[in-house]
Design goal:
36% strand; globular; 14 strands; Thiol Ester Dehydrase, Chain A; 2 domains; mainly beta; five-stranded mixed beta barrel; 305 residues; single chain; six-stranded antiparallel beta sheet
Length: 305
């Protein structure tokens, strides 16, 4: 069987099948896990500490994970997933890569909340050809409940694919395309117009980047887009030597740039050799066209004074 032999009707039949039903999180929401998460993420927001603490919203999936030992019982096991993956593996789609995820938050999770979740195979795409190879995108939706109340939804998308065989014909390599979604589309529209936009909360005036649907400080969903002036300094940086990716020519410097407005953005530092980049170096925004379709914000080092 080749990777062209699977009738799409067989794959589409998995859409809507349960991947987990009334599965139970291994632990209730608890302060130690919240603390470990915040330490790993460098998030010291006071809302995640103390007697009235809530869990960071982005921990939504963490409470559903089975760990190395997995979930026990039929509810936590997905025969539909096993069958779908066996079909794809048998057809030659043996490789897998995660592509993106989306989360919606409906209520805060607090220590003591008991977590249950239901998951469904939401969609299996028709065969797609990508730079990695040919395959099918599989999207799973998980509804997460806290003490029986819907707390949030997590969508996770993977690509099951057959790697491109042989050495491809040599051609100009393209940079990876950014993932544009409903939360960050305004940022990329700004880039297309040579404007670097960040968000500012209308309720508490806190600036934020990257773009998010709500304020991490006060929780307000009301915000405005603000154009950055373009000046900043290198807050931190790394020099990439390995691995080698097409369209990138290591070594090169990747900087965490602190803009004059107080937000930080990850981008390339250009205009000086990679080994001359240093913390505190003043930089200025410019836009770099990397191919016919893609332009990206980068930061050029400036002379001090």
């Amino acid at each position: 069987m080749t990777h062209e032999d699977v009738p799409y009707e067989r794959l589409a039949a998995f859409q809507g099948r349960a991947a987990a039903t009334a599965a139970t999180g291994k632990d209730p929401v608890n302060l130690p896990m919240i603390r470990h998460w915040c330490e790993a993420m460098g998030d010291a927001h006071p809302a995640y500490e103390g007697p009235d603490a809530v869990a960071p919203p982005t921990m939504l999936q963490a409470w559903t994970m089975g760990g190395l030992s997995g979930h026990t019982g039929a509810a936590g096991r997905s025969e539909a997933y096993d069958e779908l993956f066996a079909l794809l593996d048998g057809a030659g789609y043996t490789s897998v890569v995660a592509t993106d995820c989306e989360q919606e938050y409906l209520r805060p999770l607090r220590p003591g909340d008991e977590i249950t979740f239901d998951a469904v195979i939401e969609s299996v795409s028709p065969r797609k050809t990508t730079k990695l190879g040919t395959g099918h995108f599989v999207t799973t939706r998980m509804d997460v409940h806290a003490d029986g109340e819907l707390a949030g939804t997590h969508r996770f998308r993977i690509l099951k694919y057959a790697p491109t065989a042989g050495k491809p014909a040599k051609r100009a390599a393209l940079r990876p395309r950014p993932v544009v979604n409903r939360d960050n589309a305004g940022f990329w529209e700004g880039v297309a117009g040579h404007r670097l936009l960040f968000q500012r909360c209308r309720a508490c005036a806190t600036p934020r980047f990257p773009w998010l649907p709500g304020c991490a400080d006060c929780g307000s969903p009301d915000w405005e887009a603000v154009e950055a002036g373009g000046t900043g300094t290198v807050f931190s940086y790394v020099v990439m030597h390995h691995p080698h990716f097409p369209a990138f020519d290591p070594p090169y410097a990747v900087g965490l740039v602190e803009l004059a407005e107080g937000v930080r953005i990850v981008s390339n530092v250009v205009g000086v050799p990679y080994d001359k980049v240093r913390i505190g170096m003043p930089v200025r925004l410019e836009f770099l066209r990397v191919d016919d379709e893609l332009e990206l914000p980068v930061f050029r080092a400036e002379e001090e004074g």
